[in-house]
Amino acid sequence: MSKQINVALIGNPNTGKTSVFNALTGLNQKVGNYPGITVDKKQGICKLSRGVKAHILDLPGTYSLNASSLDENVVIELLLNKNDKDYPDVAVIVSDVENLKRNLLLFTQIKDLKIPTILVINMSDVMDRKGISLDVAVLEEKLHTKIALVSTRKNTGIKELKALIEQHKTLPKTQCLNASSIDPAYFDRLQKAFPNQDIYKLWLVITQDANFGKISRQELDVSKFKTKSTTELKRLQQKEAIKRYQFINNVLKEGRHIDRSKARDLRSKFDRILIHKVWGYVIFFVILLTIFQAIYDWATFPMDLIDTTFAGLAEWVKNAFPNGGKVTDLVAEGIVSGIGGIVIFIPQIAFLFLFISILEESGYMSRVVFLMDRIMRRFGLSGKSLVPLISGTACAIPAVMATRNIENWKERLITILVTPFTTCSARLPVYLIIIALVIPEGYIFGLSYQALTLMLLYLIGFGMAVFSAYVLDLVMKVNRKTFFVVEMPNYKLPLPKNVLITVFEKTKTFVLEAGKIILAISIILWVLASYGPGEKFNNAEAIIAKEYVDLSNTALEDKIAAYKLEHSYIGIVGKTIEPVIKPLGYDWKSGIGLVASFAAREVFVGTLATIYSVGSATENEGIDTIKTKMSNETYDDGRKVFTFASGISLLLFYAFAMQCMSTLAVVKRETKSWKWPLIQLVGMSTIAYIFALIAFQVLK
Amino acid sequence: MSLTIADLKKGEAGVITDSSSNDIPLKLLEMGCLPGNVVKLLQLAPFSDPMYLNINDSFLAIRKETATLILIDKINE
Known about the structure:
Structural class of chain B: mainly beta
Helix content of chain B: 10-25%
CATH superfamily of the largest domain in chain A: P-loop containing nucleotide triphosphate hydrolases
CATH architecture of the largest domain in chain A: 3-Layer(aba) Sandwich
Oligomer: heterodimer
Largest interface: A-B, 40 and 35 residues
CATH topology of the largest domain in chain A: Rossmann fold
Distance between the termini of chain A: 75 Å
Mean pLDDT of chain A: 84
Strand content of chain B: 35-45%
CATH class of the largest domain in chain A: Alpha Beta
Strand content of chain A: 5-15%
Largest sheet of chain B: 6 strands, antiparallel
Mean pLDDT of chain B: 90
């Protein structure tokens, strides 16, 4: 039985905490969720020596132990709860050599909780370039800690850090300063009220409750101890911050020397161009174009490959198990095509996360936020809304989660509400097939009509997002204080290892989360299409055979299958909603696709594939076949189902409708109420219906 | 009328004299926006908003509406 040391990695954002985590654990890590909230919980195992292992928990980045977001709150909740199974034996505080002063604020707070603490000073490789020299012995003595000078870029210092973790029992628990001195009388009373509790912990609990709202904390209830107003408490917190910085400045005066003449200033050189009033925007626009090019052009090659592979696989299943009956059908039509429908999105999602993580790692994203804040604010959004809106072009789920660092609640809420308007990759297959169906081939100025239509749909989505943000900003009355602080980190060359791990983890999460739902729907759809109630479905063979006596065998099978589909459960659903969707120009088969799409849009094409392949004896997957079948589809009187009018109507419907259960679920979790996802569902779908209705009625 | 960070011009610096307004987020205080610390205006976005500052060795951007709450004395160089 080997023993395990619980290690918590804590640090400010942009200190390279995740790089340290990756260096310690390698690929030996997993990302999960904290119970009940969507904050990522990253943990991993690090082998030390002689069978000793460390369990490393990478806590969300935070500037202090005073939380203003759910992510930050996770850190405090853990450090205040000694009974938590993840409560650290040792806290490893990651700091950046260039931002030591600010990083040490958090360090001193954690020291004051009497948790054994190691200080990692990361990016030590830039010290010479910045003219910084450190007296580690002095710093260790003054801060009552052990220090590891680490460079994750040069891969140095990790061995030393591991050794320090292993000897965690020798670390001093001495506090850095006595916070009680900011108001001795008050702290005295507090201690008397809770004689068995640690005084700094009590103080954190009280300010936490006042500032962030109470979270279930059975261990310690301070609600009865109310002797200060929120304003007074904040005054005290300011006093505390001043006191901490005094301590830190004294420590750094002795332990750190900066020779500014040696410092090379890359920051201002880059800033001069990247946030230039003209060039800044031009560069950003070019970067955006590159991202879209990657997602919608470079990604098509692997996507086609995946498409062919899965179509082949489904075919193979059918041929390999011809006697499997319903089971073979379920595997081939339900499960294999369902999984294919998820896997097909991997290239796009991976490309998107690749770009976003490079932009974030390099420090560029903060510059974009800086550039765009004023413009976005005009529409009730924040500069920080940009990352979600860009992410939204891949998938709204990570996009909604990326709104978390928007401090202003109203701006955050609006961002969450409008993000699903941006054209996510799930809409793409729907767009592609309908555009191919109803938009004629041809060119104008060397651009194809079809490509232009696609581009237009993106602009419409983005335009609707911005417009509805503007409207929401006018109508919403949310009285919460506005504030906005963006750290402008140093420019860094992204570490390939970090980028790749991020891409891998995020893509995996997306595939598993969204995949579960898509797969489940594919199976349900298959079942609903393969079974039906009553005589008509179960005796289809006899009924059709009696009606069409002189048909050939294949034609007869086609008729039977179509008849069965019409009277299957899903056919009944489609027929029931037909009156509602008829004004939009859709028949009951598209209706089925529409209903299924309310679970997730990407199932539309899959559904039509299922419907048309279920409805036909000639089994053939592949988009071209579906397209041909759709374009041949007619009403009883011979009119075509998919015309220019109904196609445009369908495109607009998909552009605006809220058709994604996973997104609604995430919105519910992030806003902690059903109100907002419901508003989203009803609002967006109404807009979609109206636009589709107008389009069809005008164009038909 | 005392000066605030919003009165700084590009490249100018000041010493913070008061940051006790209730509307200043705690996070900003913790990043070093405290009396006695030096603040330098590095760059402005179009329409002078947001402002890109160096406060207490931290590089950060805040909106003008927050900047007007932080009182300073200008440093003349």
